[in-house]
Amino acid sequence: xxxxxxxxxxxxxxxxxxxxxxxxxxxAGSTPMTVISQQAQRDVQPRETGASLILRPxxxxxxxARDLLAHPLASLAYGVLVVALGILVLAYQQHPLYVAAAVxxxxxxxxxxxxxxxxxxxxxxxxxxxxxxxxLEVLVRCRGPLLRLASGLLLVALLWFAVALGVLYWAxxxxxxxxxxxxxxxxxxxxxxxxxxxxxGAALGLAVVSFTLTVISVPAIIDRGLSATEAMGASLxxxxxxxxxxxxxxxxxxxxxxxxxxxxxxxxxxxFPLLGHATWRAYVELGREPR
Length: 291
Hints:
It is a single chain. By secondary structure, the chain is an all-alpha fold. The protein is about 80% helix and about 0% strand. It is globular.
């Protein structure tokens, strides 16, 4: 009866369709809610237009700001840790291999820091108490998958840099200026155009791969108990389903990170936890499975 009623009401707008279904099910002696399943209810709900969906990343940031303001000390603590790591990058920025090593280090600890911010958002969503100590509980509860996710990113980065260095050596005969010559000098002035191009391409490629593999991986591990492989698969699937939304989100992330690094990385103390909370909001809206 449900399929027949639904077929007879196709082509109507949302209000008329629900009214039609209600009338048909009452005439059959059944109550509407026993016949119209939750899936059917979702099917007849008005769908969000493509244009408004593309702009959703901005609403994630606004929601993340509310999460940050709800737990400012705990959230900013993760930002301070990121700034401390960034200072190491600035301290050894005279040589590209040092910078590469610092980037690899961030890929190893970045998911761990982001997990703390996502845990704060999850606890706020559930109405539970949340502080920095509570946010660390996720590192015990999901330690294995988070470490495997970080290790997977580290492996991807190592392979990526190895390929880039191999290309440099094949095309240029050297991968970088000597360390001695860059300690007191300007490394950019000593890099050839080919070296600059390869390093920039490697950085961009690594950023794209990392974003695609981790856009919702951390919150998926925390919320659904997925393995690292399953979480990365969920991120890839989300990027395939919503490529334009993810492109807007990636550009917004890059812009916020650039803003955070504009003043000697100090802005990252706020930007990193903001993005961590926004990652949770993106997952809730586009990646969380119905329960």
